[in-house]
Amino acid sequence: MDLREIGEFGLIDRIRKWMAASDAAVIQGIGDDVAVIEMAGKALLVTTDILIEGIHFDRSWIDPYRLGKKALIVNLSDIAAMGGNPKYFLISLGLPKDLSLSFISSFYRGLKEGTRKFRVDLVGGDTSLSQKIVINICLIGEGRKKNLLFRRGARVGDDLLVSGTLGDAALGLKILQTKGLMGGPKGLIERQLSPCPRIQLGQAIAESRFATAMIDVSDGLLIDTTHLLEESGVGARIWEERVPLSRLYRKWIRSYSKDPYQIALCGGEDYELLFTAPPETRKKISSLALSLGTPITRIGEILPQKEGLQIIREDGKKYSPTRLGFDHFK
Ligand code: ADP
Ligand code: MG
Asked: Which of 85, 113, 143 is the last residue of a domain?
């Protein structure tokens, strides 16, 4: 059997079984956005993400400044998805010999901008020769154990909610890949090149204590919903026409797809927050969205596990999606 057959997530499931953690201080090991370890009464949060040239980015469309910032941001989003507070990080780089010093200095300027904006400190890393650029960040954060939101925790009857709009980053990538930097509106392209982690929103949701589970949308709405459902042992229904789309997305999607929802449902890298909360908290959620100026949309509801994941189309027709989102090996 090869990785194509089991896919990225089939592989992670196996690793999780082979390598179960034994220390009682491990509150959450493999299986969530970050690992959670209890330390001196606090919850230590640890997460890592890798960016590989040719797989995650292409030097022809992302400049080193934005690349540095983005490398940090994709990690910050995982801490946001727990409602945590990011603090310190390490960065390891694989670099080709012919890379210019100015590329690296711009990369670190972008990284520095990220550290200033999100108040985190770089505390170390590692450097090696590589044929292609490889960037790995390990980010450490902290949280209050009682406030943290895991992927597990969603209950039948809960609402399924998402922040912001979906599909912009993936549509931005499509534009970059087909037409280049000038091929479409800046708004969509910037969502791909300079995403924004929902740190403040994640913390506000965690502190308000009304949500039951949370994940960030990094691989795509459907696949990340599936991760939340699997960890919680539940199913869900999503109303397609409720999936929040930006004005620019609506305008530009027609040139790229016959199905206006396909990219919003399956495209990745929006770094929005997807969470569940019981219906009686709707008023509180609206006022939180209003006070932070971040739209939060109710896109579905949690069902018993046997119902699986169902999408309800505008005409009322129901289907169970087969293609969910990005998997490195499929
Ligand atoms: P995210 O999209 O939030 O970054 P992933 O889908 O990458 O999450 O990972 C899901 C879970 O699997 C996380 O707990 C992550 O730490 C873990 N994981 C991913 N790859 C590996 C690996 N090679 N070995 C051990 N754990 C892994
Ligand atoms: Mg995540």
From this structure: 143
User: What is the CA 14 to chain-centroid distance, rounded?
Assistant: 22
What's the structural domain count of the chain? 2
Among residues 108, 114, 44, the alpha carbon closest in space to that of 77 is found at 114
Containing structural domain, residue 78: 32-143
Ligand nearest to the CA of 197: 2
Q: Is residue 323 over pLDDT 80?
A: no
Cβ neighbours of 120 (radius 10 Å)? 22
Which numbered atom of ligand 1 lies nearest the CA of 78?
A: 3
3-state secondary structure string across 14-54: HHHHHCCCCCCCEEECCCCCCEEEEECCEEEEEEEEEEEEC
Q: Is the CB of 327 under 6 A from ligand 1?
A: no
Q: Is residue 11 part of a domain?
A: no
User: For the whole model, what pTM was predicted?
Assistant: 0.96
Question: pLDDT (tens digit, 9 = 90+) per residue, 245-295?
Answer: 999 999 999 999 999 999 999 999 999 999 999 999 999 999 999 999 999
